[in-house]
Specification:
Layout: E1 12-16, H1 23-34, E2 37-40, H2 41-51, H3 54-65, H4 71-82, E3 91-94, H5 100-112, E4 119-124, H6 127-135, E5 137-140, E6 146-148, E7 168-169, H7 176-190, H8 192-199, E8 203-207, H9 212-227
Parallel strand pairs: 1-3, 1-4, 2-3, 4-8
Antiparallel strand pairs: 5-6, 5-7
Bound molecules: adenosine-5'-diphosphate (ADP).
Adenosine-5'-diphosphate is lined by residues 19-20, 23, 40-42, 45, 62-63, 66-69, 74, 95-96, 98, 102, 182.
Length: 228
C-alpha cells in the first residue's frame, strides 16, 4: 500500500474531517493506544491566544468568527511543535493540514526529515448532525478528556471520569452560528485535501457516525497497519 513506512521513521497519521467529527477524541485514543503524540493546531492556537503571544493575538478574532487562521501563523506554530523531541515517537495531526498550502508545506517539512504521511484518515459524517454534536461538547481543563451532554456524559456530573478534576470547559467557538462558518470553511478550504491524499494513495475512510467505540475500532485497525 502507498504510505507504507520504513521502520526507522516515526509514523505520521492525519485525521481529516469537519468540525465535530470527533478528531480530537480519536486522536487521544491513538495517543494512548499507540504511544503517538497528538498535535492539534486548534489546541496550539488556543494556547497561543491564552498566552497573548503575537500569533495568538492575530488568531483570536479569526477563530471567534469560525474562519481559518493564516497559513503563515499555523505553519510557524506547527513547525516549532514538530521540532520537539517527543514527536520522534510519531504523530497524529488533528486539525492540520486544513488548506492545500498547508498540506504542501507539510510534505516539504516531512521530506526534509526523511519522513512521509503514512495515512490520512477521513472521518465521514453527516454535516447537519455536527451542529448538535458540537453544541453539546465540553472537555476537562485538567487532562483534556472530551465529553458530550448526550453522547458521552461524565459518570458524575461536572467531574472528569479520567482524572477526577471538576474543571469542565466549553469552547467559545462551539456555538451554532460559529459552527456554520466553520463548516463552510471546511467545505471550501479543507475538503479539497480528500482528493489531494487520494491522489497520494494514503486516504483511508471511516464511518464516523457510528458509536465512539466502533469508530475507535475502525481507526485503531487502520493505525495498526501503519504503526505495527
Ligand atoms: P474543530 O476541528 O472543531 O473546528 P479545532 O480546535 O481544530 O476545532 O480548531 C478551532 C479553530 O482554530 C478553527 O476554527 C480555526 O479558526 C483554527 N485552526 C485550527 N487549526 C487550523 C489550521 N490548520 N489552519 C487554520 N486555522 C486553524
Amino acid at each position: 500500500m502507498d504510505g507504507a513506512r520504513t521502520p526507522q521513521t516515526p509514523p505520521v497519521l492525519i485525521l481529516l474531517g469537519p468540525p465535530g467529527a470527533g478528531k480530537g477524541t480519536q486522536a487521544r485514543m491513538l495517543e494512548k493506544e499507540f504511544g503517538l503524540v497528538q498535535l492539534s493546531t486548534g489546541d496550539l492556537l488556543r494556547a497561543a491566544v491564552a498566552a497573548g503571544s503575537d500569533a495568538g493575538q492575530a488568531a483570536k478574532a479569526v477563530m471567534e468568527a469560525g474562519g481559518l487562521v493564516s497559513d503563515d501563523i499555523v505553519l510557524a506554530i506547527l513547525r516549532d511543535r514538530l521540532a520537539a523531541g517527543d514527536c520522534a515517537k510519531g504523530v497524529i495531526l488533528d486539525g492540520f493540514p486544513r488548506t492545500t498550502a498547508q498540506a504542501e508545506a507539510l510534505d516539504e517539512m516531512l521530506a526534509e526529515a526523511g519522513q512521509r504521511i503514512n495515512a490520512a484518515i477521513l472521518l465521514e459524517v453527516d454535516d447537519v448532525k455536527m451542529v448538535v454534536r458540537i453544541a453539546g461538547r465540553f472537555t476537562c481543563r485538567a487532562c483534556g478528556e472530551g465529553y458530550h451532554d448526550t453522547f458521552k456524559a461524565p459518570k458524575v456530573a461536572d467531574t472528569c471520569d479520567c482524572c477526577g478534576a471538576q474543571a469542565m470547559n466549553r469552547r467559545a467557538d462551539d456555538n451554532p452560528k460559529t459552527v456554520m462558518s466553520r463548516l463552510d470553511a471546511y467545505h471550501e478550504q479543507t475538503a479539497p485535501l480528500i482528493a489531494y491524499y487520494t491522489d497520494k494513495g494514503v486516504l483511508r475512510r471511516v464511518d464516523a457516525m457510528q458509536e465512539i467505540a466502533a469508530i475507535q475500532g475502525a481507526i485503531g485497525a487502520l493505525a495498526r497497519t501503519v504503526v505495527a
